[in-house]
Amino acid sequence: MSVSALSLTRFPDSISGFLQVASVLSLLLLLFKVIQFYVHRQWLLRVTQQFPFPPANWFFGHKISEDQELQEILTRVKNFPSACPRWFWGSKMRIQVYDPDYIKVILGRSDPKSHGSYRFLAPWIGYGLLLLNGETWFQHRRMLTPAFHYDILKPYVRIMADSVHVMLDKWEQIVGQDSTLEIFQHISLMTLDTIMKCAFSHEGSVQLDGKYQPYIQAVEDLNNLFFFRVRNIFHQNDTIYNLSSNGRQAISAYRLAHDHTDQVIKSRKAQLQDEGELEKVKKKRRLDFLDILLFARMENGSSLTDKDLRAEVDTFMFEGHDTTASGISWILYALASHPEHQQRCRDEVQSLLGGASITWDHLDQMPYTTMCIKEAMRLYPPVPGVGRELSTPVTFPDGRSLPKGISVLLSLYGLHHNPTVWPNPEVFDPSRFAPESSRHSHSFLPFSGGARNCIGKQFAMNELKVAVALTLLRFELLPDPTRIPVPIPRLVLKSKNGIHLCLKKLQ
User: Fold this and answer.
1) Where does the sequence pass through the membrane (predicted)?
2) Assessment of whether the complete model's pTM goes beyond 0.85
3) What does the domain layout of the chain look like in residue ranges?
4) CATH superfamily of this structure's domain 61-505
């Protein structure tokens, strides 16, 4: 037999041998993964045995439809005191916490954000204040805190009022055609308009320029895509996710969001090339958000990288408009559903302002309106939950404990509806927030709490008050009985079917 014939004979044998080896290695790898899965699941069951939970499938976990997620939390709050495991699939689990004593313990620690879920936000908002941990987070937080000093916030009230008036003028035109309006989209544009002007020195009106609608839609899409990805076992891997239809949609939305923020940064950098503008900025007693970022120097003397700069802009652009839009929308819905409280707020605002423009000093002179705002945020917290990953073991006041490595979801929605904390929690009762009332320090956390509380909470509260006060002066609000909103959890609290109100122009 020739050498070439012998080689051809041996070639199939070598392929067959290779395939056999590959099959054995694949089976061994599969067996290793099965054992790893089983061991980890058994460990989770063992370390969480002090925390009972509803029956769950060993592989598919607790299958809950998105419409029922919040209702399921309320059921757990009633049946499983303080905390309860939520199984997603196999060994994917996190502890839902909704007791103020438990939450106080967690927020008093320095545990990082839950990497398993929050990492999915990184392609969108990068590693800014929301996702950073440790010393880098502390440096960025300290650097940005001056942007929210009251000297900076005071003049923003006029800007907020101007943006709200633009929105209300649009509503007056629309109401003439159809008295029922989906308000969330309009309010999103208004809050984006406000944050662009206050924090990013934008000139012009976002609400009157149609080019900003794609950014609003991108944020809406990314909210939904994040929610579904966290709950999909097949989308945990980046490569697989990016090849999926959801992944491709996410990549497109990332691009739209980044184009928007890149343009904001580019525009402000161009303005600062003008010597007059630069001199004006240097004379400021305090810098606004974007200028702080552009002029920042870290402790080692280096300025922020372009990547870090965009991450902070992306983070605050999203958090500064979407959470506030959620808050305002749900507050207006709550007032529309409770006309007696709405009228009392309106009377308070009318007696305070008369025909005058709203100012910083007015914001602390609306006690009943503030009580209603807080009660609405209790019922409809703009951020329904925040995650942590335990970096060290923790023991709670009742003696139950959890080890390092467990993911914890602080369910602010569950906390705010906990009947042991708030009697008759589904009832809208602003007197809960009367000045003389007492409550647990961690029973009401619309802006989270502890060292990582929302850096812009005062900015947000000011905007909520301005928007509510000016809206009540122009319109009577009524719910649309044919389209009652269905709250659903996303990064911020949304409604599955929008938030529709009937608006009646006041004479």
Assistant:
1) 15-39
2) yes
3) 61-505
4) Cytochrome P450 (1.10.630.10)
